[in-house]
Amino acid sequence: MDTIDNNFLLAIQTNWYGFVTSIFVFGILYYLARKRVSFGKRVLIGLGIGLGVGILFQSLGSLEYKAISTFGSIYVSLIRMLVIPLVFVLVLNSISSLTSLDYLRKIGFKTFAWFLGTTGVASIIGLSVALIMNPGKGIQEVAPADFVAREIPTFSQVILDLVPSNPFNEAANGKVVPLLIFAIFLAVAIIKVGSKNEESVKPIRDIIQSATQVLHQVVKFVIRLTPYGVFALIAGITARYGWDTLQELGSIIVTSYVAMIIHFVLVFGGLVFFVARVNPIKFFRKIYPTIAVAFTTRSSYATLPVNLDVITKRLHISPRIASFVAPLGASVNFNACGGIWPAIVAVFTAQVYGITLTGTDYIILVLVSIISSIGVAGVPGPAVISTTVVLTALGLPLEGIGIVAGVEALIDMGRTAVNATGTTVTSLLVANSEGEFDREAFNRNEDEEIELQAV
Q1: How do residues 3-32 score in pLDDT, each as one tens digit?
Q2: For residue 283, is it within any domain?
Q3: Residue 159 belongs to what domain range?
C-alpha cells in the first residue's frame, strides 16, 4: 500500500511540474499577444520554448512532459472537431458557387494533375537521395516480435470505402473522403438546378454562405490557440524521444529530411518561381503558419483550418479555389507520405536485408508510389499503407516498416509539413492559371496576420 501511495504521489508531483511549466509558458505567450507580437513570431517562440522544455524534461528521465502533452492533445482535438463540418460546408459552398460544370471539371483536372505530378517527382527525389546516402548501410536490425503489418486494402475495397453509403454515419466515424464526395454531389445538383431556375436554389445557397461565415469565426477562435498548442506538442514529442533512438536510426532520419528539404526548396520553390512567377522567399514566409501547424500536429486535416486562412488571407487566392483545393489536398495529396517516404524505406529495407534492386524495380517503385497515393485517400496511416504497398510490389520484407517505426513519428512531422505545403503550392498554381490570384495584394509589404492579433 505504501508503494502504491508513493507512486501516486510521485505521479501527481511530476504532472504538477508539467502543469506549472505549461501555465508559465502560456502566460509568456499571452503577454506577447497582448503586446501585439505577430502571430508567426509567437508560433516560432512557442516552438523554441517547447523544444527547450522537452530536452530538459527528457534529460530528467521522468514523466513531467505528460501534463504538457495533454494540453497539446486538447489543441489538436479542438482543431479536429472542425474538420468534418468545415470540409462539408466549404466544399459545398465552393462548388455550388460556380456557374458552370465545365469550370469545375477544368480546375479538378488541374488540381489532380499537380497533386500526382509532384508526388511522382517526390518519389524520384526520395529514391535518388536514399541511393546516394545509403541509410541502411551497416545497420543490422531484426523486426520487433509483435510487429504486424497493416492489411493492404484491395482495390475494390478502396473504391467501396470512398463511396458514401450513409453520409451521417461517415461523418460520425470521421471519414472525410466519402463526406467530401457527398458534398460534391449536392453542390453539382445545386448548380444543375440553379442553371434552370436560380430562384429555387437561392435559399439553400444563402444558408450555405451563412454557415461558412459562422464556421470561419469558430476557426478564428481555435487558431488563436496555435502558439500554445505548438509549444505543448513539440515539448511532448521532444521529451518522449531521446537521443538513443535518434542515434541508432539517425541515418534514415537525415536521409528523409534531406529529401524533403530538396523537394521543398527545388520543386515547390521552382514551381512557385517559374510557373506562378512569385518570389519563393515571400511565399514561404507567408505560409509559415501552415508549415508550423502541420509540423507539430502531424495531421493534414488538423492543419486544414489554418491552411485555408493562409491561402485566402495571406496569399490572396480566391475562396472558391481555396475551398476546393485545400480540403481535397488534405485527403489525397501525399508528396511525402506517398512519394518520398516509401522510396526511402524501400531502399533502406533492401540494404538492410541485402537485396539488390534493379532499374525496373525503381520504375515500378515510382509508378506504384503515385498510384498508392490515390488509393490510400481516407485510410488511417497513409504513409504506412503506401509503404506497405510499395514494399509488397517490390517483393521486399514488410519487416522493414517495423525497423523504422521507432523514429517514424519524428519523420512524420516533416512529412506532414511537406504534404500541407504541397497543397498550398497547388492552390497558388491553379488560382494563377485561372486568374483568381491577387498578385498585387500578395506583393504588398504588410504581413497579414490572419486576423489573429487579438488573442
Answers
A1: 545 554 555 555 677 788 888 989 999 999
A2: yes
A3: 2-442
